[in-house]
Amino acid sequence: MTKGISTRLATELPAQWTPLSTWAIDWRSSSARALLNDLTALHQDLGGAAALSTQERLVCERIAYLWGRCRAYESATMAGTTPPMTAGEYSNHCNVLLGLTKTIGLRRRARPAEGLHEYMARKGAQSQSGGEGSR
């Protein structure tokens, strides 16, 4: 292991997405952290991970993956280096990305909020059970 980066786990996004492949990478690598940041941002914009169905979370996973692949192509093109895919593959990725974002919606969603009665009931129950979290 060199400078805390795993030599056994992937540190780059694979060329082809496979189910749960995004979770079998070294989370200390920059591309893995970018993927996690993108996924977190998507979840937050959609009202939080708890508000999403399994299908929506899977679509978000694919969006984050494609977003990273498109960003890699764009960065290489702007830097004048060899991109990781052809222009046609990039165009295809962008079109699929657009379709997936339309599937889950292009607008932010409000996070489900707890009502006043639920909040007061929860706080009352916490104070009766020993005071944890009743500050």
Structure write-up:
- The chain has helices spanning 30-45, 54-79, 87-104, 116-128.
- The protein has 135 residues and is mostly helical.
- It has one domain.
Mean of the pLDDT scores? Answer: 82
Q: Sheet bearing the most strands, described?
A: none
The number of helical elements comes to 4
Question: Separation of termini?
Answer: 45 Å
Percentage beta strand: under 5%
- What does the radius of gyration come to? 20 Å
What key phrases describe this protein's structure?
135 residues, mainly alpha, 4 helices, 0% strand
Tell me the layout of helices and strands.
Elements lengths: L29 H16 L8 H26 L7 H18 L11 H13 L7
How would you summarize this macromolecular structure in one to three sentences?
This protein is mainly alpha-helical and 135 residues long.
